[in-house]
User: Fold these one by one.
Assistant:
Number 1:
Amino acid sequence: MPRALSPSQVEEFRERLCAAAEHLFAEHGPEAVTMRQLAAELGVSPMTPYRYFKDKDDILAAVRASGFARFADAMEAAYHSESDPVAVSEAVGRAYVRFALEQSDAYRLMFDLSQPNEADYPELVAASGRARAMMVAQAQGLIDSGQAKGDPEVIAHILWANLHGGLVLQLAGKLSPRIDPSALRRAAFQTLLKGLARDD
C-alpha cells in the first residue's frame, strides 16, 4: 500500500510533474506523450502519476491552468504599475510579450490548442478568465479616458489578436530580418489606437 502523503508533498510532486509535462507536451504535442513517458521523466514508476492525476487530460488541464495563472499574475502586476491608461495598456502588452517569449512552452499550450472538456476543470476556467479579464480591463481604461471608442471586449480582442499574431510569427521565425519585433509592436499599437479613437 502506498504511504500517505502530506498536502505539501502532493503539491510538490504535482508541480514537478506539470513542469515536466509542460515541456514534453509543447515539444511533442500532448497526444504523442504517454503517462509512462511522464513517469520516466521524473524517475518514478509508471503508475505513480495516477496517484496525483486522473489521466493525461487532467495533467494537461493543470499545466494550462498554471500557465494562465502565471500569465494573469504578470499582466495584473503590469496593470497596477502605471496610472495613465495608455501607459497601462503598453505595460500590459509588454508583460504579455515577455511571458510569451520567456515561457514559450506554456504560451503555446495555452493558445495553440484547446481541450473540448475545458469546462470540467474549474482551475483552468478561472485562470484563463483572469487573463481575459485583464485584457478587457486595460481596454476599458482606454475607453474611460477617451483614447478609444467601442465595446471593451471587442477592443481587447483587437489588441490581443494583434499581439498574438505578431508573436506567433516571431516565435516561428517568420518575421523579415529587417523587422524589429518590438518596433513593430509599438507601431501596430499606435496605429490601432488612432483607429480606435475615431467616431466612425
Number 2:
Amino acid sequence: MTEQHVQKSIVVLVSGNGSNLQAIIDEIAEKRINAKIVAVIANQETAYGLTRAENAGIPAIYIDHKNFASREEYDKQLADSIDEFNPNLIVLAGFMRILTPAFVERYQGRMLNIHPSLLPKYKGLHTHQRAIDANDKEHGASVHFVTPELDGGPVVLQSKVPVFEQQDVQELAQRVQQQERQMYPLVIKWFCEDRLKMINNRAVLDNQILADEGYAIE
C-alpha cells in the first residue's frame, strides 16, 4: 500500500495569464497532486488567472496594490487574505511583485516560485532576452523556495532548453513555459507528499540536501 498523506491546501498568487496555475489545476483534477487550491489572489484586475480560478470553482480574489500607500501595507493585506484560508503552501505563479522581507519570513519554507532562468543566472526581469544577448547555449526555468533575496532562495528543480542561433525571444519564452508547466506541478506534488522541505536555507528532497542547481533528473 502507498503511504497516504493528508490533503494539502494551496493559495496561488498570480498577476497575469496563469498558465502555470492552469497546469496545477489540471494535475489536481487528474488526482496526480493530493491538494486543493483554496484561493487564487491577483494584484491585477485583468489577470486571466482569476478567470481560470472562477472556471474551476476556486475563490478568486483581487487586491489592488494601487490602493495601498506602501509595499508593507499591501503585503499585510495580502497576508491577512492568505491567512483566512490557512494554506499549507503558497505558490507564486507569475506574481509580478517584489515581496517584503516580513511577508516572505511569515511563510518561509512553504512558499514556492518559478523563475524563467537557470538560477542564479538572470534574476529579475527580461530573462529570455538576456540569455539571447549573452549568446548562451542553454536557458530554462527554476523552481525555488522563496527567501527575502529576490529569486535567491534554494533551487528545487531546473529544466533546460537549448538556445538556437538567431533565436526569437517569443519562441524561446514559449519553449521555457512548456517546461514550466511540467516541472512546477511536479515540485508541488513533492511538497504535498511531505517529500520536499526547506531546512537551514537548503532544499531537501527525500531527506537528501539538493545541490545548488536542485534535483538532477539525468
